[in-house]
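Minutes, project check-in
Item: structure for the 282-residue chain
Input as provided by the requester:
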Amino acid sequence: MTGANNPCGIGAAVAKAFAAQGANIFIHYFRHFRRKDSEPNESAVAGPGEAFYNSQQAVSAEGVLMSVRDMGRRAHAWEANLSEPRVISELFNEAEKALGPVSVLINNAAYWEGDTFLPAGTDSANRLSESWTDRPRTISAESYDRIFDVNTRAPALLMAEFARRHIERGSKSGRIINVSTAGAYCFPSEISYGASKLALEGYTRSAATELGRWGITVNAVSLGPVQTGWITPELEKQILPTIPMGRIGTPEDVADVIVFLASEQARWLTGQRIYVGGGHGM
């Protein structure tokens, strides 16, 4: 699984959910350090919001590893920057060396920054939260590459490497689950992030079509608002009216669906995008 160091995050919840089902877990992670031009004061780190989220993204995966091992399962973590293509085969080598062949690939890692088609200095009415200092900037070649390298290219290469190894060893079944967003179809003020996830959904359907004959299912979970440390109380009040079930999602809500998609019960389910958001994004 990629992107599982944030102790409040989806990756951590997924790792623990799989461990509860008896699986051994290989965790990839890459620590994201906050930009120097948006340094918060110490008191701001106490509760959900930009500062707290950034602080959780900057920790190692040691806490998640301990949680998995406390359940009696084997676990190994490896830090690497997925924007570097050479990392892809190295990641699988590390996983196989530590735990054996990979039977389930979960593409959860993502890079985010806000960007827009609007010129600098133009205020966007669609910005997610006025409380975040990381305001969207006009799209550039550099911002595009930073987002698509991690969110789209890396999962595509990981899926290809997973398929190659799966086919070469003659495995009969495999699972790939990609993590997307309900904003993929249209995401003003986060245009490249949304587009990168929509491209990932396209890869999901193509991979499902090509890899099905080798027993590999490929699906995507499309997430509504999930509290991984970034939703402030003020933002929660804005979001709740868009969720029919009346609450913000938890990482465990997502983890349970991902575990299902990896299970034997989902053996004939492939090429699907499943919205996990309490009705947000139907």
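Outcome recorded: The first strand starts at residue 25 and ends at 29.
No further action items on this chain.
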